[in-house]
Amino acid sequence: MLWLDACLCLSADRCDGQAILTSKNVINVKSVKNYMSFILSYRYRRIDMKFIFQKFIPFFVLIIFSALIISCENPTESKEPDYDYTVQYKITGSASLVDVTLNNSTGGTEQYDNVPVPKIYSYKYFEDWFLYISAQNQGQTGTVTVSIYYKDNLFKTSTSSGAYVIATASGSKP
C-alpha cells in the first residue's frame, strides 16, 4: 500500500518545531530539510509499474473486450420498426367529397372541408393515446368508410351509406 504524508507547513521557517503527521507516526521535525531526509529514509512501498501491467491491464482488456462484444449489434437485425407509420387514418368509399374531423399526433383536433375520397392521413410518430376520425358525406348518395390503422394493423373501422351520413371510428391506442 502507498502511504502518503500530510504536511500543512511548506517552508523551513514555518515547520521548525512543529509535528508532521504521517499515516504511521507523528514526528517532530526541526526543518523542511530534516523532513525531506526523513522521507527519503522512510520505507515506502514503491508503485511497481511492472506489477500493475502484469496484474491489472489484462483485467481491463478483458472488460473492454467484453463491453465491445456486448455492444456489437447483429447486422441482420434492424432497429427500424416493422411498420411504416404508427397511425394511419384512411377514408374510402363511393362518396366523392367528405368533411373530415380527426385527432392528430399531438392530441389536437383537425378539420378539413371537401376532401376528395380516397384520402389517407399518416403519422410516423403519434404521441397522443386517443385515435379518432370522422368523415361526413357531402353528397346526396354514396358510402363513406373510415379506418384506423395502428402499426399497419387495422384497429377500428366504420361505414355509413346515404346522403350526408357520418362514419366515425375511435379508441385508445392498444
Can you give a write-up of this model?
The strands form three sheets. A four-stranded antiparallel sheet has the order 6-3-8-9, with no helix packed on it. Strands 5-4-7-10 form a four-stranded antiparallel sheet, with no helix packed on it. It has two domains: 12-61, no CATH class; 87-172, Sandwich (Immunoglobulin-like), CATH 2.60.40. By secondary structure, it is α+β, with helices and mostly antiparallel strands. A hairpin with a 5-residue loop joins strand 4 and strand 5. The chain contains four helices and ten strands; from the N terminus they run αββαααββββββββ.
Distance between the termini: 61 Å
Low-confidence stretches: 1-18
Strand % is 35-45%
Count the domains. 2
Mean pLDDT: 76
Provide the gyration radius in Å: 39 Å
Q: How much helical structure, as a percent, in the residues? A: 10-25%
For the largest beta-sheet, the strand count, sense and barrel status come to:
4 strands, antiparallel
The CATH class of the largest domain is identified as Mainly Beta
Determine the CATH topology of the largest domain. Immunoglobulin-like
Q: Tally the helices: what do you get? A: 4
- How do the strands of the widest beta sheet line up side by side? 6-3-8-9
- Given the helix and strand composition, which structural class is it? alpha+beta
Number of strands: 10
Under the CATH scheme, the architecture of the largest domain is Sandwich
Bulk shape: rod-shaped
SSE pattern: HEEHHHEEEEEEEE
